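User: Here's a chain of 185 residues. Predict its fold as C-alpha cells.
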Amino acid sequence: MNDESLPSAAARPQVPVFCQVGSAEDTVGYRMRRIVNLLAGEIERRMEPLGLTDAQWKPLLRMFASGDTTVATLARGCHLDAGAMTRLLDRLEAKNLCRRIRSVEDRRVVNLELTDEGRVAARQIPDVVAEVQAVAAAGFSQQEFDQLKEYLERILTNVLPFGGDADASAQRSSASVSASEGSKK
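Assistant: Prediction complete.
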C-alpha cells in the first residue's frame, strides 16, 4: 500500500472518542465475532443429538419454515454460493433429511422437500436455538433485549455500504446458482 492510497489526516473523518480503541478486544467487531463463535459452538453442540452441524440446521429450518422451496431460493436465503449449497444438500440428503426434485415444468429449477425425518428434526431446531439465545439474554429485560437487537440492526445498516454484506453476497451467489441450474437444462 502506498502513501497516495491513504487519505490525508485532514481528509479523514473525525473519529468520536468512544470509537477509539487500544486493543482488538476493545472493538465492537471483536466482541460480536466472539459472541457469534460462542453461540454457534453451543448451538452445534446441542444439535449433535439431531445429527446436525451449525451449517446444516439453518437451511433445514428455512425449508421447514417456508415449505417446499428451490435450491436457488434456499441458497439465496442462506447466503451460500451454488457449490456450497450443493455440498450442504448432498450431506442433508445423505442423512435422509431432504431430497432434490427436478421441476417438470422447468428443468432448470431444482425443487427441495423435507423428508419425514427432516421434518421431525426441523421441528426441534427452534427450541434448541431459543434455549441458547435465552442463556445469552440472561439478565436482560424484554425491553433491553429488543433495544440490543435495534442497536445491532443500526450497526448493520451503518456497515452495509462496506460492500461485504451477506445480502449482497447472497444476491451474487443466487445469480451463480441460477446460472448453474440453467446450464443443466
